[in-house]
């Protein structure tokens, strides 16, 4: 599968066009590895040793970076914790997807069936937009 990540079955590489799908898969991967708390909170939880917390951040960052296209990594070279890395990627790519969704909505609204056209072709065009 093109864009898949070695060592992470079913995971895709983040590029400038697939942030929404990548985000869901990455969150699931981090949950399975018990690293999801690191993208949600920056502060050290009570009872956790600072060294252990930093080590968990390194593991989470390594997991995230392995699933990011090399052209995107150059935009986040100096992040020191998973929380900052996650939010920077969100800032860079989530906004663009909102614009893409608005564009898709306009295409769906403008899609019209003309009497006499092949209904299967029309439905396939619609499904292509939705999926």
Task: Explain what you see.
There is one protein chain. It is built from six helices and two strands; from the N terminus they run ββαααααα. The chain is mainly alpha-helical and 131 residues long. It has one domain. The chain has a two-stranded antiparallel sheet with strand order 1-2. Helix 3 (50-66) runs parallel beside helix 5 (82-110). It is elongated, with a radius of gyration of 19 Å. The two termini are 18 Å apart.
Properties at a glance:
single chain; 131 residues; mainly alpha; two-stranded antiparallel ribbon; 6 helices; elongated
Global outline: elongated
Helix content: 55-70%
Helix count from the secondary structure assignment: 6
The secondary-structure class comes to mainly alpha
What low-confidence regions span 5 or more consecutive residues with pLDDT below 50? Answer: none
Please tell me the total number of domains: 1
Rounded to the nearest angstrom, the radius of gyration is 19 Å
Number of strand elements: 2
Gap between N and C termini: 18 Å
Major sheet: 2 strands, antiparallel
Helix-strand string: EEHHHHHH
Portion of residues in beta strands equals: 5-15%
Strand order across the largest sheet:
1-2
Rounded mean pLDDT score: 86
What topology does this entry show?
Layout: E1 4-5, E2 8-12, H1 19-32, H2 37-40, H3 50-66, H4 70-73, H5 82-110, H6 119-130
Helix pairs in contact: 3-5
Care to give the gist of this entry?
The protein is mainly α and 131 residues long. The chain has helices at 19-32, 37-40, 50-66, 70-73, 82-110, 119-130; strands at 4-5, 8-12.
